[in-house]
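Board notes (copied after class):
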Amino acid sequence: QVQLVESGGGLVQAGDSLRLSCAASGRTLSGYVMGWFRQAPGKEREFVASFTWGGSRYHADSVKGRFTISRDNAKNTVYLQMNSLKSEDTAIYYCAADREGSNWNSAAWGQGTQVTVSS
């Protein structure tokens, strides 16, 4: 069973940067894809970025060029560097880990960290 703990959220102004971290424990993450999702008030949870065990990265179009996902397998940690933040980035950000190919259907989730961007 994978346990995930996010950190790094906060209140920032538009144009600022934040770096989210997600530390995983409970098992090795070999063969797992790790990712970030977010949920804004009144909206459904949406995909933000993912990083496969093989090293491939994917970013949602809405964050491409501003956010960058990275992963340190030795530390069982995934990061989300968020630059040029906009008010529409305000959301609870969740870390997820799932076996590759499972399409997040059996993912473990963190408790979420709040990111608030004031304009």
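Comment from the instructor: The two ends are 40 Å apart (CA to CA). The chain has a mean pLDDT of 95.
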